[in-house]
């Protein structure tokens, strides 16, 4: 569900407009054609290794599979056959609660500068220190609007389609290896759809009307992941996340896990802190800073299309790793000192 997902406009935003006008259409048609390579490679990999992966993961699942099936059976009986209520809890309540719990902690850090074990890992050290409270309130209101009035109806439509196709709330859980395979496919589809929809929203004719809202934050915070124009929220935040479970006819357990992970990952990508043991947010943080780099989620299509070329020449690229120590990367890999004029 990407990544896809604030008050005054920064002067850098206008500079971004100028950059975008110079870019033009940016060879989107060539990008679309090259996407076939990514999709084809993913399908080939899954087909080639499915049997081996199935055998190993099924052994890993083992006895714990019975435990999770028992818990699901209890939940299924608790809802007494009300599949829409069950689907709503799994796809809206659980992921949304996870999103706001995580963001509540981040917003405390953004607003107060405490706890220091978070704020010392700030990427753009001189930004959001503390965050503008009015901009934060505006962001929260917009995100709540998007979730209630856009995400909920789309989840309802997804339920109708998935119910028409099969049984998304069936009494039997998917096998663990199939759950992982579906998660991988969902991630691949999200990468493709988010990358190209995101690049489309950066087209000069569209950007100022829709995507500029999201880029009001040149130094993003977690909740900004869903701060977007309604059109962008539907097409670039929700659709890439929904398309996988709908096409695959995924079980609710898979869909709920996928939505939750997608929301938490996009929050990390926007949070503004490079925290230990969490995925690196340097890639997307750089996109908010420079506008015309790093459009994707995983970075696969950016590498393919060269839209990470500038990023790879920066200190941010050197810091784009999993942090395994307690030393902030701004300290271990400091910015190059500016030359005196």
Automatic annotation (TrEMBL):
Keywords: Membrane, Transmembrane, Transmembrane helix. GO terms for molecular function: iron ion binding; oxidoreductase activity. It is found in: Membrane. GO terms for biological process: lipid biosynthetic process. Coiled coil: none annotated. The chain crosses the membrane at residues 35-57, 84-106, 143-164, 176-196. It comes from the Eukaryota. GO terms for cellular component: membrane. It holds the Pfam family FA_hydroxylase. It comes from Megalops atlanticus. This is Fatty acid hydroxylase domain-containing protein. PANTHER family: STEROL DESATURASE. Residues 184-307 form the Fatty acid hydroxylase domain.
